[in-house]
Design goal:
Layout: H1 8-36, H2 39-43, H3 48-58, H4 60-93, H5 97-114, H6 119-148, H7 160-179
Helix pairs in contact: 3-4, 4-5, 6-7
Amino acid sequence: TYNSDATVKQLRNMVIVGSLIPLFCYLCWLFAVVGNLPPEQLKQFSSVSELMAGFEHEAPWIGTVLSLFTGLALLTSFFGVAMSLFHQNSDTFKKNRVVTYVITFVFPLVGAILAADQFLSVLAYAGIILVFLAIFVPLAMVFKLRKSDTLGERYAAEGGNSMMLFGFVFGGFLLMSQLV
């Protein structure tokens, strides 16, 4: 609703630029970390916390920068997921805003507090659910729209059925990588 006046070209550019910004930031972080450590030293770290501690040992200010970057990455991820989940819950349950806030924020917060030591294992399940929400559900929606032929003059992405098949195979690959 907040982009209802945008043209097709503006919407496409929003998606492209909005995807390239986090990709660029992630690649910079990845090159900074991987580019500064030899492979033998990278293998000895079993978690991001150990990696950050290794950098702090070399230069104390690096720990602050990495902690800030990690915190901002988690915060922006949380806001993005929370906004999406809030709108999805609002559409799904058709309740007032208070009930939607409780479903979206309070239940997960209580779960995170009660099972803080299980965070990484729960995160693996969230990855599986995300594959369905981000890949398979949109593919099913596009398939249904194309089959019903209600798209008309609206914007359609390039690639046709071959790209839908590629998306399905890629989703299967991501799903299998989460399970393995």
